[in-house]
Write a structure and sequence with these properties.
Helices cover about 50% and strands about 0% of the residues. It is mainly α and about 90 residues long. It has one domain.
């Protein structure tokens, strides 16, 4: 939790500078990676769908993109995506 909390803090810093949600920053950063990256966010409510769509209009600075790329390297997060008890049911 501590390691992932540090990562979340970095994401929240960028989101607060732009007055958007961390999810919007994550989506905008993914969209800035190139035309071969297509994020597929899930959502439960219309307002989250609208937030996700608004990420398309978020223009991250070069500095923001560089900071996020430096920190969010593949495998950087700690722990599994799902609790250990669920893994067998998922075929993992």
């Amino acid at each position: 939790m501590e390691k992932n909390g540090v990562l979340l803090g970095i994401l929240e810093d960028v989101s607060s500078r732009h007055s958007v949600t961390p999810a919007q920053v994550a989506l905008a950063w993914l969209l800035a990676q190139g035309d071969d990256i297509v994020p597929i966010p899930g959502t439960k409510k219309t307002r989250y769908l609208e937030e996700n769509l608004a990420a398309v209009d978020l223009n991250l600075s070069d500095s923001d993109r560089q900071d996020l790329t430096a920190v969010f390297q593949p495998g950087v997060t700690a722990g599994t995506r799902y609790p250990e008890k669920q893994l067998p049911r998922l075929g993992i």
